[in-house]
Amino acid sequence: MKKLVMLAFIPVTMLLGQGPGMGMFPWWDSPLAQDMNLSESQKQQIKNTVRDYRDRLIEQRAALQMAEGNLQDSLNEDQVNEAKANEAIEKTVAARGDLARTISQMSLKLRMILTPQQWQELQKRRPMDRFRERGGFRGRRPGRQGAPPEPGHSPDAPPPGTF
Q1: Distance CA 147, CA 137 (A)
Q2: pTM score, whole prediction
Q3: Among 126, 88, 117, 154, residue whose Cα is nearest residue 2
């Protein structure tokens, strides 16, 4: 499931971050997808899938931004209204869940278009995978690039509190 969500990251990021005249191109026409031997039929299916989900993704992203803004406003009040803040939290969580569900559903549809070989090749080319292979942020504290791991914490061990 995690891989499906990551697959969605690429098209959704480009979709949501792309505005009219911004000069970006769809991921299936990008260097990421070059030499993956996508057939014209696959490209058309991908375009149709993204088109089918585009409006819903845009609406859900806007709903999430609004919910996050309302939550921030609630937390920034001089006298925080706990009930109002909790309601804003619930709306934010629900909006994130709706967006994640839609991205995952779209990712599944996109995955079904690719052959197993194309899927494997796409996984090799994903920027976050290369980042993780080089160690990512492991052993570093935020704001301290290259900082050693905290004492008593193995850089290969998961952070405390995780499974």
Answers
A1: 10
A2: 0.62
A3: 126
